[in-house]
Amino acid sequence: MIDPLASASQIAASGLRAQSTRLRIVAENLANAQSTGTTPGADPYVRKTVSFESVLDRTIDAASVKVKALGVDNAPFRLEHDPSHPAADENGNVKMPNVNPIIEMADLRETTRSYEANLQVIKRVRNMFSTTIDLLRNS
């Protein structure tokens, strides 16, 4: 027999792991939002992405979430005119990363909320375990 409280805890833990990876990628994107190439015409930092998948976990007989793949965003690079920059091409244009800080901040907010929701599930499950043990002791 599968314990529903343990299953809920494991499902939430898988969500925590997935959102932790997503948070790391968002932080990396934000940290490199201005990282250009070092030589004329070189490509800058490329925005990374995370995709998830639902996987049946046979040990708990329920679906959990896992990181499916880490990828890159194929959006074009922004061009900025700065002839004095070491990565400027012959026209004085510098390729800037395809990272949009507004999108990254929105992803950060969503990731944080999902992480917190999964953490609350684990806290509730622990409280239920504790209450169950107390009830068993007092009976």
Automatic annotation (TrEMBL):
Segments forming domain Flagellar basal-body/hook protein C-terminal: 91-135
Domain Flagellar basal body rod protein N-terminal: 10-36
GO terms, biological process: bacterial-type flagellum-dependent swarming motility
Domain of life: Bacteria
InterPro entries on file: Flag_bb_rod_N (IPR001444), Flg_bb/hook_C_dom (IPR010930), FlgC (IPR006299)
Keyword set, alphabetical order: Bacterial flagellum, Cell projection, Cilium, Flagellum
Pfam families the record matches: Flg_bb_rod (PF00460), Flg_bbr_C (PF06429)
Gene Ontology cellular-component annotations: bacterial-type flagellum basal body, rod
Subunit organization: The basal body constitutes a major portion of the flagellar organelle and consists of four rings (L,P,S, and M) mounted on a central rod. The rod consists of about 26 subunits of FlgG in the distal portion, and FlgB, FlgC and FlgF are thought to build up the proximal portion of the rod with about 6 subunits each.
PANTHER family: FLAGELLAR BASAL-BODY ROD PROTEIN FLGC, FLAGELLAR PROTEIN
Family to which the UniProt record says this protein belongs: Belongs to the flagella basal body rod proteins family.
Name this protein carries in UniProt: Flagellar basal-body rod protein FlgC
Protein species of origin: Afifella marina DSM 2698
